[in-house]
Every structure is written in C-alpha cells, then in structure tokens.
Design brief:
two-stranded parallel ribbon; 321 residues; globular; Rossmann fold; alpha/beta
C-alpha cells in the first residue's frame, strides 16, 4: 500500500502521541481517518490538527472508546461504517497503550490486569472487531504497536516491568503468527508489528490518569513505593518532602515526553514508511535497533546488570530508566 490517498484508516489511541501523529500524517496524505481514545478533549484537538493539514474532502472522525471493552469497540466500528459510509477499511493501527503495574508481586492486581487489558486486549479486540472490514477491502494492512519491551522485558535491573512487557511480547507474537494466517486465509491483508524505543509521548502522564495515580493524588502507600524505587536506583530521597516528591514524579512524565531522542512525529513517519514498504517488522528509533541486536547476540545475559550497563554505555536510556 504505497499510496494512502482515498484509503480509510482506523487508529486507536489517537488523542496524543504517536496516535495523534499517525492521524495527522495519514490525513495529510489524503487518507480518511477514524480514531478513538478515552479522552474526548484530546480527540477533538487531534481532529482539528489533522483537518488543518489535510486535502479538502478528507474525512477525520472521532469516537470515545476504551479499547479494552469489546462493546465500546463494536460501537466504534459501527460509527466508522456510518460516518464513512463504508463496509470496508484499508488500514488498522492498534496503537493505544498505557504503562503501569510493573510488579507482578507487589503491585495491585487490578492495575496489572488493566494495563494488560489495554496493551494486549486492545490489539486483540481491535483486530477481531475490524478484521471483517479489512477483509472486505481490496487491500488491507494491520499495524500493531508492540514495543522495545516486546524484545527486552526490562527498564533496568532494579525496576520490575511485568504487565507492559508481557502485553507487548503478546502483541509481537500475535502479529508474527498472523503473517502465515493471513497469507493462507486473507492474502490481501498484511500485518506489521511496530517496536518503538523511547519516543516523546505522554504515555507516562496518561498512564497515571488511567490508573488514578496522577502525581497530586499519590497517597502515602504510593509515595513509599516511589521512595523505595528511587533508593533501589541509587537515588535515596528520605529527606525529600511528599509535596516535592509528587512534583518530581510530574516532572519525570514531562521530561520523558519532551526530552526523548525521537519525537512522536518522527516515529509516525517511520511507521508509515514501513507500511508503504510492506515491512512486517518496524523498529522505531536507534535504541530499538541497538537493543534488538544486543539481545539477539547475547540472550542468555540480557537480564544481568552488566547487560544493562552495556546499554547505558551506548548512551541509551540515560536519566529516564
């Protein structure tokens, strides 16, 4: 699918970050887009930005939906069919995602399952929901967002990262398995798995909102965990007040977005170029390329502290994880 003009794309998680940039760049290319997110305000902002850069006649529609809820996704599908007057779509970007609940042992079970339900369940349900419309098109492409953590289930030797990593490994495996399934049963539909490294998005901020853990609402138990994690990373904060600690958490989320080595716009460009080239595997960012190579070269030691130090020596993840 080298040309997106006149095609119809569905993008989940289009309110911010890579999702927003995918919507904008697809619309600019003359592709009609339907996008969903859990926040109406950011969706409206995305639509406005996309329409401003799109050719006349390009449709951009929005729908508030939680990708972990099949009923809401089915309602989104019905809205796409109605608002775009179509029984088919050409592109499905299962992009929505959150972080959180890193520890299987110590974190809240509900938060763990909520993270997994969005990051894996959203991809599974999104594909289930829109597969019929993709198959009804002359040409279709599914684009599933995994992560560097679908290659390497770690953000450091002292930071549990289980829910997100488990989900992203599931997305990767599902996408790779779909290659053969689609070839046999729907050869006009392709699939790509996207594995971004550190991209400048609001995922840290948004994850706090989704889990009800915004910095100014962190309670005593939350702050104890933050202090324990910082101490494990070599940054004891015993003398830091609760108020300043909350400010620090907020600043981290902003810095993760604003100081990333790759912008969301650049990440979207890489993804769309990969789709145009029909790549089934799209690594996004130099850090993703390096981690992929190093894990393949030495998988046995990938979770040892020395491996992490070798990554940091290459300038990866400095100051963020």
């Amino acid at each position: 699918m080298e040309n997106f003009v006149g095609r119809i794309a569905v993008v989940t998680g289009g309110g911010t970050g890579m999702g927003r940039e995918l919507v904008r760049q697809l619309a600019k290319a003359g592709c009609h887009v339907a996008t969903c997110d859990v926040a109406a305000t950011t969706l409206d902002e995305t639509r406005t930005l996309a329409i401003e850069m799109a050719p006349a006649g390009t449709r951009v529609t929005t729908f508030v939906a939680d990708v972990a809820d099949e009923t809401q996704l089915l309602a989104f599908r019905d809205a796409v069919a109605k608002e775009h007057a179509t029984t088919s779509i050409n592109l499905l970007f299962n992009n929505a995602g959150v972080a959180g609940a890193g520890s299987f042992v110590d974190d809240d079970r509900a938060a763990w399952e909520r993270t997994f339900a969005i990051d894996w369940g959203g991809v599974y349900l999104g594909t289930r929901t829109f597969l019929g419309m993709l198959m009804a098109a002359d040409e279709g492409h599914i684009v599933n967002t995994s992560s560097i953590n679908g290659i390497f289930a770690s953000v450091g030797p002292n930071r549990p990262h289980t829910a997100y990593s488990a989900a992203k490994f599931a997305v990767r495996g599902f996408s790779e398995a779909l290659i053969t399934d689609l070839r046999m049963n729907a050869p006009h539909v392709r699939v790509s798995v996207v594995m971004p490294g550190h991209v400048g998005t609001s995922i840290v901020i948004n994850s706090g909102i989704v889990h009800g853990k915004e910095p100014d609402t962190l309670d005593e138990e939350d702050l104890v965990k933050v202090r324990r994690q910082l101490a494990a990373d070599g940054t004891p904060v015993d003398e830091v007040s609760d108020e300043d600690l909350r400010k620090g958490v907020a600043m981290f989320g902003e810095a993760f977005r604003d100081l990333a080595p790759l912008s969301a716009a650049s990440a979207a460009e890489i993804i769309l170029d990969g789709v145009r080239q029909n790549k089934w595997r799209i690594l996004v960012g130099e850090d993703a390329v390096i981690v992929d190579r190093m894990v393949r070269d030495d998988p046995e030691h990938a979770y040892e502290p020395e491996f992490w130090r070798a990554l940091q020596a290459k300038g990866l993840f400095g100051g963020f994880v």
